[in-house]
Amino acid sequence: MRFDELLFRAKAGDMEAKTEIFVKYRPLLIKYSMVNRRFDEDLYQELAVELMKCIRYFKDAE
Question: Helix (H, G, I), strand (E, B), or coil: what is residue 38?
Fold first, then answer.
C-alpha cells in the first residue's frame, strides 16, 4: 500500500493503519529520543504523541 493511502486510512481512524505508520517510524522516533547516547523514554513518548497528532491534523494538498 502506498503511504498516502495508509495516511488517509489512519486519519479516518483505522488503528491498523496507525500502527503500521508507527512501526514504520519507530526507528526514527528512537533515534531522536537519544540524549547524550542515552534513550529518553519521556522524549520518545512525546515524539510518538506528536506523530499521532500529525496524522490527525494532516490535510491533503489537493
Answer: strand
25 close to 51: Cβ distance less than 8 angstroms: yes
Report residue 13: phi and psi, to 5°: 105, 5
Q: What separation in angstroms does the CA of 25 have from each of 39, 46, 61?
A: 16, 14, 22
Would you say 33 and 27 are in contact if contact means Cβ atoms under 8 Å apart? no
The pLDDT of 33-50, averaged and rounded, is 96
Residue 34, SS3?
Answer: strand
What is the spatial distance between Cα 45 and Cα 41, in angstroms, rounded to a whole number? 6
pTM of the predicted protein model:
0.83
Query: In angstroms, rounded to a whole number, what is the distance separating the alpha carbons of residues 26 and 23?
Result: 5
